Amino acid sequence: MTMGKRFAVVLTVLGVLTGVGAVAASPALAAYDNCTFGYVCMYNSNGGEGTRHSYAGVSGHCTNINDVPNTANSFYNRRDDGKHVQFYSGRDCKGTLLCKQSIAVLECESGVSDGPHAAGTAATFLEAPRRGGGCWCHRNNAESIFFNNG
């Protein structure tokens, strides 16, 4: 084995052992990359998969989802102004505030995971059993988006 090949093998082994080397984007995050910077994107499948719909709203105002309401399973807040958004089950930002999927359903019950969702947040909407029966059925329920001032 030549010195150059030995060096390449050593570098490869070191890279594997230390985790250093080329790293591809995780498939879960890569799916959201098709959202144009400056927009809020909603997807009809979990994890940023499926058909994407993009919305550019005005801070302090509500935007009704007119093209395909009630099909959003996931979202990505990629606003370029760094501001938050909230999603509602009703038109004109009325109805239930929609929660993102989290480890603890208690976060939705306490209002922690229903927003506002900071710029850079990419998540699937909550779909889980509710304590005492019923369902936190927030997927396929978005009718409007509030574009926060902060």
Kindly summarize this structure in a few lines.
The protein has 150 residues and is of the alpha+beta class. It is 17% helix and 22% strand. It has a single domain (25-147), classed as Gamma-B Crystallin, domain 1 (Sandwich).
Order of strands side by side in the largest beta sheet? 2-1-4-6
| Rg measurement, Å | 20 Å
Largest sheet: 4 strands, antiparallel
Gap between N and C termini = 61 Å
What string gives the helices and strands in order?
HHEEEEEHEEEE
CATH architecture descriptor: Sandwich
Q: What is the mean predicted local confidence, pLDDT?
A: 76
Q: What's the CATH H-level superfamily name?
A: Crystallins
The shape, in one word, is: globular
CATH class: Mainly Beta
Number of strands: 9
What is the number of helical segments per DSSP (H or I, 4+ residues)?
3
Describe the model.
There is one protein chain. With 150 residues, the protein is α+β, with helices and mostly antiparallel strands. It has a single domain (25-147), classed as Crystallins (Gamma-B Crystallin, domain 1). The protein has three helices and nine strands. The protein has helices spanning 3-18, 27-30, 106-110, and strands spanning 40-43, 52-55, 61-64, 74-77, 85-88, 122-124, 127-129, 135-137, 144-147. It has a four-stranded antiparallel β-sheet, with no helix packed on it. A three-stranded antiparallel β-sheet has the order 3-9-5, with no helix packed on it. A two-stranded antiparallel ribbon has the order 7-8. A hairpin with an 8-residue loop joins β1 (40-43) and β2.
